Predict the structure of Aminoacyl-tRNA hydrolase.
Amino acid sequence: MLPICLNENEVEFIAIRAQGAGGQNVNKVSNAVHLRFDIPASSLPDEIKTKLLAMRDQRISGEGVVVIKAQKHRSLERNREDGLVRLRELIAAAAFVPTVRRATKPSRSSQRKRVESKVKRGQVKLQRGRVTE
């Protein structure tokens, strides 16, 4: 996995009103956050940029801007942190490099043991036949 350094100066936060029930403060306080992150203009490594732009994620626009709406919490600051965490998770998913699986063969002794155990099991089953006197 490549080291990721997210520069928070490249992230734009816009305070918006949260959806849903909110009681008396619903029309007065803007607690939700729209987080905008421009992938092509960011300081991320080029490999991660290309992987992010190739991702089929509805939060990434056609111009390469990540838009995350955070409104889980009641405070603006906690929603900001939540949005940043989700952005870091998205970048980490793009930076993840799976380990390459190398094909291996079973050893000769393991193959021999397998066949011998099958033969032995078959012999046991052969002796289960009907008893004749």
The first helix runs from residue 46 to 54.
